[in-house]
Amino acid sequence: MLDALPRRERANFLNGLSGFKSANLLGTADAHGRTNLALMSSVFHVGAAPPLLGLLIRPHTVPRHSLENLLASGQYTLNHVDEAMHERAHLTSARHPRTTSEFEAVGLTPAWSTSLSAPYVAESPVQIGLHLREHHTLDCNGCALVIGEVRELRLAEDARAADGQLDLQALGVVAISGLDEYHRTESLGRRPYARAPADSDD
Amino acid sequence: MLDALPRRERANFLNGLSGFKSANLLGTADAHGRTNLALMSSVFHVGAAPPLLGLLIRPHTVPRHSLENLLASGQYTLNHVDEAMHERAHLTSARHPRTTSEFEAVGLTPAWSTSLSAPYVAESPVQIGLHLREHHTLDCNGCALVIGEVRELRLAEDARAADGQLDLQALGVVAISGLDEYHRTESLGRRPYARAPADSDD
Fold it and tell me: Do residues A71 and A132 make contact, with C-beta atoms less than 8 angstroms apart?
């Protein structure tokens, strides 16, 4: 089936094949403080202790300035995209000239902390500051896999439930499908911790 | 903030910190044809040509039988979780004894193709057969990163739009937040391909 699809349709299809995706803006700066901002849909959970997030970057696409900045400085931010700014976030994927910051080009606001050299997105409801921990280049297609440790968090105090759960839906965070479709969510509820009839350590 | 959180609350919080996640059932079999099924929320898009999907597995958690099978056979399936079976899918994460297949334990049906040694989930609207391409162990916490090539697809003919886009929402596919919350989605629409005012190759 895949072989029969024209290139563009194949890309559309395969970008949806993993399921719903997270929507995060990757914020970086170069040594001169010039900022870059790139939409990422491949951020994933790696671990809780230490707190680690993974990110896959395709180096031959637009975010290569972001990847260069990230690797050079070792610092970056991930900022959740919400419904109010998802259209502006999407525009960061355009091929902006190197001399233009995507912040300015799309109308989002850089915000700085004293403890990180990369810019946050002021409009984002969940702002995460990371230090680079590990970096692999995939043999299969040259993608960069980046693992970072969470070093700073900027979010509303009431964004967490009593048991720690982050209420992404209440924050208006969106999910992505394919290359260009955005979704709000409606919770089906939380499921209890799953136990087998005879729970063992096997 | 993170350091002050008790272990369980910290795990709840950090599992939601990447944003909304895909929901896939990983199907594997051992050399004797005994099946395993494990819920995964860390499948991500890697590339369209060749068609590649990534998957992060925490080896010290329940899915280690699945990881052993996957590495030994080099073949596995990923099956999207929809609203109708998300409760059964969640139950695969219980600690079932090795002699029990999660298919049987939770009430899902294994389905076989002649070209793959791993079982599909008959109830799933998008069934993907993969061959292992590449495997990394992360230095930072020992997680296994698995890259597979899509070799077989089983889905309804009308699941794709004319331009290739896979309509996950129409298929009832769910998104996950945190460790245990499931969501249906409501589309905000597709955004046009983003172009800068002066599109260049810079």
Answer: yes
